[in-house]
Design brief:
22 helices
Length: 450
């Protein structure tokens, strides 16, 4: 069959672009993952398991608050900015980026205030000791930069995935270098907190600088002038899109950080540290799907959703991603335990049992990555919201129940179940959207490529 002729797939210029951009991000992510392991190894060996778990909980709290309030402004910029740029309508592009920047500012300030106010009341429940609350509050000042996705969207619309690839190395590189200094210099818990803080801040600021330089190079001035009311009125359905994607992604993006907090609250900081190690390995293993998604979404938003082209691209990308996932699954199963023991020490090998459970969902995670992008392309973002919400509710119920029954292994089982629920809940509305694709002309992006 022609559809199964892999050589024919690469004759498609859009498919080649997706893979090219994913390769940019993938090469830096691979190096970033190695640097991240070095950083975690230094932290794991430089502190007791309890202090390492406390560092994880502090980072997870700030990251979790940011994930809850964060608007997916990069998706908004791709959805509205890519067609505007294709038409050469720079005024509309400025509205898009200004609206996104305004949302980032507002959500970041709300997240900062909420995180600082709630932390003293929630710290003990999440396993953060009273003497560490002040450090955790300092770490919360990163929330405004953690929530900002405008520069990411700008670089994707301007097809500067090479810049994004370089930026992805900043935080893990600084964490690795700072972690090594803290470890060999015996700077202890405070040294590692400062290292992670500086690394996160530098990585976020680097992204803004790159976006500003690229806009200036393209001669697009005034694109980073924040605004909400004016652009929100001029851009059709802008508020509906950002609220829907915000709620959907807030639910799912908070999965990892909140999982760490739940494990810490129920089982203590040491178990939170083990869960963090296992989830870090799993996230690293599933990165190819995330990278393909980041490249896939901007490309299909330029296509006609009523044609078969974007849907065919989704199937091809899913098959390739699933095959990569199978290979990675074998590597993790064979080499995960010795790598964890070598990097973190024998006291952390228990994390491999969790990793084995979590990798059961790896192929599902990687093969299902196009579903969300297809729903956004088809104007079915509310269906994506329902899918995300239903899966997250199922996961939340399972993690509490299974931890009480199986301990820390229950957290791994719940993670697998949550991933599978998300895939199923996303697949059903995607199939319906494909069946009714002839009615999608109202969501066609202007200036779409044939």
């Amino acid at each position: 069959m022609k559809a199964l002729n892999v050589k024919h797939w690469f004759a498609d210029g859009v498919f080649r672009t997706i893979l090219r951009n994913a390769s940019y991000l993938g090469s830096s992510k691979l190096l970033g993952a190695l640097l991240g392991l070095i950083a975690l190894a230094c932290a794991g060996r430089g502190m007791t398991p309890a202090l390492f778990g406390t560092l994880v909980l502090i980072h997870s709290y700030a990251n979790g608050v940011g994930a809850v309030v964060k608007f997916q402004t990069w998706q908004f910029i791709v959805r509205y900015g890519a067609p505007a740029l294709g038409r050469g309508d720079l005024d509309e592009l400025r509205d898009v980026t200004g609206f996104a920047f305004g949302l980032d500012l507002a959500s970041g300030l709300v997240g900062l205030a909420g995180g600082l106010i709630l932390l003293p009341f929630l710290a003990e429940r999440f396993g953060i000791a009273a003497q560490d609350v002040s450090i955790a509050m300092l770490y919360c000042t990163l929330i405004p930069t953690m929530t900002a996705a405008t520069p990411t969207g700008i670089l994707r619309v301007l097809d500067r995935f090479d810049q994004l690839a370089v930026q992805q190395l900043v935080t893990p590189l600084l964490r690795a270098v700072g972690g090594a200094v803290s470890y060999f210099g015996n700077f202890g818990f405070t040294g590692f907190v400062v290292t992670w803080f500086v690394a996160d801040l530098a990585g976020d600021l680097c992204l803004w600088i790159m976006a500003a330089i690229e806009l200036r190079r393209k001669g697009i001035d005034g694109a980073l002038r924040p605004g909400l009311l004016g652009p929100g009125r001029r851009l059709e359905n802008a508020w509906d899109f950002v609220w829907t994607t915000n709620i959907a992604h807030s639910i799912w993006a908070a999965w990892g950080p909140i999982s760490n907090l739940i494990v810490g609250a129920l089982l203590g900081p040491t178990s939170a540290g083990l869960f963090k190690i296992a989830s870090t390995f799993f996230d690293s293993a599933s990165k190819p799907a995330d990278l393909l998604s980041r490249s896939f979404y901007p490309e299909i938003m330029r296509l006609d959703p009523t044609s078969r082209h974007p849907w065919q691209l989704a199937i091809r990308s899913a098959l390739i991603s699933g095959a990569i996932g199978f290979v990675i699954l074998l590597l993790v199963m064979l080499g995960g335990e010795p790598v964890i023991g070598m990097v973190f020490g024998k006291r952390y090998v228990e994390a491999y049992d969790l990793l084995q459970l979590m990798t059961a969902s790896l192929i599902v995670t990687m093969a299902s990555f196009p579903l969300e992008s297809l729903l956004y392309m088809a104007g079915r973002q509310r269906a994506a919201l329902v899918a995300e919400g239903a899966a997250a509710l199922g996961y939340a119920g399972l993690i509490f129940m299974l931890i009480h029954v199986f301990g820390i292994e229950g957290a791994g089982l719940a993670y697998v179940a949550g991933v599978c629920l998300k895939a199923v809940f996303m697949l059903l509305p995607t199939l319906w959207a494909y069946r009714d694709r002839s009615s999608l002309s109202h969501v066609m992006t202007q200036g779409a490529r044939a």
